[in-house]
């Protein structure tokens, strides 16, 4: 059969991985695709830059338009990331009649509703398996393998960078800043890791998963998003002492036909599979009405895991599976409208770490405020402070006080925090995290 001709836009980490698979395992990919797959163009910023892969003369160049408009090209593989110029490149490729494979979750999340209709109008497809959870086949898992189900909940660790940082902080007894530096040195974090550590990346991925799960279009700006960039090592250590691991958890639940969604640092009880996910790994726990609960886990980033996901979409395009799937996959259409549960109505347990003056009645004052806001205490932990004789020092010691609550709403907690701010014995800052048992 006629070879499938590719235009790789970007030959960085993931692009190099794709090129390695295609050149080092050409016979295997040809057999599984039913025909050869060839790289006709590899568009880069600097063609003279040393690379781990060597391609035939003339394949590597800087002319995007030449690659997109080549009538021999069947599929454009966008691997440069970001919104611009990736959006313009994908649009132009689709309008030129080329199907697209991408690892760009930001582009899919923000502009999928623009790109998918253009693809359908021009008889093309868009594959984005690599956009969520790297090498974990979750897009096809939810979009195809679980298509006979109604997904009722997703609990997931979707950002390997944040998970690596949290793992290293606790295991190596190091600060957040030191763990970020390690992640950058190992290639798990960008020079500017903001989108990973502030929860944006995980929120975009959760948005895409819910779109796959039920056709519901929820933008990250519409639900609660908090990152790990304000956590201290002390909070990870206190959580560990209480029997929990801290994870940046992305959660979506269908409750009485309404959708609860949030991304935030969360205490996960030891013994749950999610608590054991360490380093740059991802895990997605999906619960659905027919199958029950299933787990997807594996490397969420890196050259070869992400390249593996890109290759799955390329092979689907070569075999024709992508055309059949895309034709019936109603993404970014009207979808099924779902009302979001207001953040103030979300119920969960909470972890608090207060800095308090070590003197009588402080705990009683805190408990009174929480109680009047219908928040009951599950446990309290305060390490013993030095014994000091009355009058020996001018002011009380300030000590950490850790409180775990029973279930309460975000609204109740918010009201309690307004009152807590007026307590003279409490010192800023204090920390609050969700708890998932």
Protein model, in words:
With 437 residues, this protein is of the alpha/beta class. It has 3 domains: 4-134 and 305-328, 3-Layer(aba) Sandwich (Rossmann fold); 158-299, Dihydrodipicolinate Reductase, domain 2, CATH 3.30.360.10; 344-436, ACT domain (Alpha-Beta Plaits). It is built from 15 helices and 18 strands. The protein has helices at 13-24, 26-33, 64-69, 86-95, 105-121, 138-145, 160-172, 176-185, 194-197, 200-214, 233-242, 303-319, 321-328, 362-372, 410-420, and strands spanning 4-9, 37-43, 60-61, 75-78, 99-102, 126-127, 151-157, 224-225, 244-255, 258-269, 281-288, 292-299, 339-340, 347-357, 377-381, 398-405, 408-409, 426-436. Strands 7, 8, 9, 10, 11, 12, 13, 14, 15, 16, 17 and 18 form a 12-stranded mixed beta sheet that branches. A 6-stranded parallel beta sheet has the order 3-2-1-4-5-6, with helices on both faces. Helix 4 links the parallel strand 4 and strand 5 (99-102). Helix 4 (86-95) runs parallel beside helix 5 and helix 7 (160-172) crosses helix 8. The longest helix has 17 residues, at 105-121. It is elongated and about 80 Å long. The N and C termini lie far apart (54 Å). InterPro entries: ACT-like_dom_sf (IPR045865), ACT_dom (IPR002912), Asp/hSer_DH_NAD-bd (IPR005106), HDH (IPR016204), HDH_cat (IPR001342), HDH_CS (IPR019811), NAD(P)-bd_dom_sf (IPR036291).
Largest sheet: 12 strands, mixed
CATH homologous superfamily (4th level) name of the largest domain: NAD(P)-binding Rossmann-like Domain
User: How many E strands?
Assistant: 18
What percent of residues adopt helix (DSSP H or I)? 25-40%
- Cα distance, first to last residue? 54 Å
Ranges where pLDDT stays below 50 over 5 or more residues in a row are none
CATH structural architecture of the largest domain: 3-Layer(aba) Sandwich
EC number: 1.1.1.3
Active site: 205
Catalytic activity: L-homoserine + NADP(+) = L-aspartate 4-semialdehyde + NADPH + H(+)
Protein name: Homoserine dehydrogenase
């Amino acid at each position: 059969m006629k070879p499938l001709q590719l235009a790789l836009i970007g030959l960085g980490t993931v692009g190099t991985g794709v090129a390695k698979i295609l050149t080092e395992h050409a016979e295997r990919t040809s057999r599984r695709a039913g025909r050869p797959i060839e790289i006709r163009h590899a568009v880069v910023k600097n063609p003279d830059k040393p690379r781990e892969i060597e391609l035939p003369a003339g394949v590597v160049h800087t002319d995007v338009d030449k690659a997109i408009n080549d009538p021999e090209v069947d599929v454009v593989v966008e691997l440069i990331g970001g919104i611009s110029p990736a959006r313009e490149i994908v649009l132009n490729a689709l309008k030129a009649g080329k199907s697209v494979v991408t690892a760009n979750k930001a582009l899919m999340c923000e502009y999928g509703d623009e790109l998918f209709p253009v693809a359908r109008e021009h008889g093309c497809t868009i594959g984005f398996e690599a956009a969520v959870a790297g090498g974990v086949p979750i897009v096809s898992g939810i979009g195809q393998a679980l298509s006979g189900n109604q997904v009722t909940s997703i609990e997931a660790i979707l950002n390997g960078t944040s998970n690596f940082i949290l793992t290293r902080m606790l295991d190596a007894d190091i600060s957040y800043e030191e763990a970020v530096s390690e992640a950058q040195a190992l290639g798990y974090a960008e020079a500017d890791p903001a989108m990973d550590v502030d929860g944006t990346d995980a929120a975009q991925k959760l948005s895409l998963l819910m779109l796959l799960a039920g056709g519901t279009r929820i933008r990250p700006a519409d639900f609660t998003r908090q990152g790990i960039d304000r956590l201290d090592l002390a909070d990870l250590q206190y959580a560990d002492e209480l029997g929990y691991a801290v994870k940046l958890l992305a959660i979506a639940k269908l409750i009485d036909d309404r959708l609860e969604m949030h991304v935030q640092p969360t205490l996960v009880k030891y013994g749950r599979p999610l608590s054991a996910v360490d380093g740059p790994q991802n895990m997605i726990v999906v619960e659905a009405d027919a199958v029950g609960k299933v787990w997807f886990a594996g490397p969420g980033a890196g050259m070869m895991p992400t390249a593996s996901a890109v290759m799955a979409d390329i092979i689907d395009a070569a075999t024709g599976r992508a055309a059949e799937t895309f034709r019936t996959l109603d993404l970014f259409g009207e979808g099924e409208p779902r009302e979001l549960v207001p953040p103030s109505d979300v119920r969960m347990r909470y972890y608090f770490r207060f800095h308090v003056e070590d003197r009588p009645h402080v705990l009683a004052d805190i408990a009174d405020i929480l109680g009047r806001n219908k928040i009951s205490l599950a446990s309290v932990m305060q390490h013993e402070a030095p014994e000091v004789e009355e009058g020996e020092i001018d002011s009380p010691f300030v000590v950490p006080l850790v409180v775990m609550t029973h279930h309460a709403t975000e609204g109740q907690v918010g009201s309690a925090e307004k009152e807590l701010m007026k307590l003279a014995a409490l010192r800023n800052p204090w920390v609050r995290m969700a708890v998932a048992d």
